[in-house]
């Protein structure tokens, strides 16, 4: 043996053995066992015809047996002949002797089948009333007998027959062993075996190899079982295989379809390939309304691709780059990991996961969280009402009060940033495409309700409110109309001065069934409901006093959006302490989580106690806690508000006296002792106003801060001076 052959790779020797075994099996089966050879036994058109005719012959035999047996039962003798009425039979029958029915196959059978002219005999046993079928000479070929018929009796074996059979059997056994060995070696694919052991890996199999993998799985008849084990829908798998062989436009459209995004071609780019602009759905749990998808031109070297990407102008939109092949994955992922750009790489494995995962939005969010700064896609909305349903938590009972009843009027009162707008937006979303209710949201910028609504409806500013509601009712298409009016305080203040003309019109429209209303506001709405006896809004609808968010909903708000980004708190107790310190105020929880995200380094995925402490001391939180000093348009009322807050902060001593509370009677007594003529009704209103703003809360017989963090904004030594100055202003009034 030469040195070259002696060092031949072992896998080549196995391959050679497999080829030899397959060839041996194919040749040997032709000589000794042709029924085992797929090329010999491949069914032809005549085989199909013969099979159909045999089924017809079986039916004709059945009817012939029934006729003969019926005659025998009536006459107790065997008939001399059998009359079969069939224009084009597949068999003819005669009665050669007693208790014997003989059938001959006609020429309807193809000549190559060897069935035409052959015979079978059916013998009747009258004692048990059963028939026995056996082929007779000339007999049909093997495999061409009707069901239930036995072949003709075999002739006695000679020594030659015995030796021939032994030799044939040995050859068949050897051929089968060789074929089995070859099949095991040939089909023992390590890649498929690994997928069978870990089927979830199928979801991240490189998309470039899906066509080849699909072909191998179909050949082995393992595709269906593997898809079930990997929890992949068959429709998604077929789409992924088609995607692997599709052009750039078809790929981009399928990726967008999986994300429920609206894709339009974006022009004016110097990139080789195509760029699409996606409008992302509001259900996406990140603060990302649109992104750019770039599909590079086929055959573009990865070095040139990265060079083109580096030459892009700095922008604000995230660009998702579709990797063209596995060779480009590493370079594109390295480029996307650079924090200086806003690119993310959709590599080969992630493309497959995008197409096969039951929740593709989670795939996109996870990809962006890994390759971009999380603050760029933070799901937390710290300004204005929450518009994304994925970050709206809680308020289920309040929603049920509105959604699960007949439409009515509602008055939503509460302090700033407590979630009034978020709740109204949630109600509007729930009524989208509702078959019976049409909901319209309107946010007022000033006191002009009719002018604001007219501008939205593209009507003249002086259009009466009744006509505006009539237009909305027409657009509702017969559905009941619910008008959500946000930020109504300035409107109500102006109405109080002008005699409540528009409020009276709203009440009349509601009583006549033309429209129902939900008004949201703070102190002016509260005064119109509870303190102004002449207000038409009194008893106008159900009052909903909006306070803190449910505790469990606050926990979910702090943890679930972060978990979608792959981020978690170091311990559950940390979340509990943070939510409690925020007084279950949703906007404060969102601000702390957002600040925690801003502190995380790239790749860091755990928020610890240090992050939470820093967030609690942040300017963003202090700004959110501010604004309480001017809750009323009346300056004197604001002074009284500040006196109450400073006096409570003084009692608390910045937390030194944890159980200290302030009572109204205590404050009125202190006013009397200081010679301050503050009215009891004005003081009662001040406490109600601070409680409505969620600055104070009832605690036994007194009041305490609703948000424990609120007391931290007062520095030591400042509270006494601030309180003294406000008391002097109150005394001078």
TrEMBL record:
GO molecular function, one term: ATP binding
Keywords: ATP-binding, Membrane, Nucleotide-binding, Transmembrane, Transmembrane helix
Cross-referenced InterPro entries: P-loop_NTPase
Transmembrane segments: 14-36
Domain of life: Bacteria
Protein name: ATP-binding protein
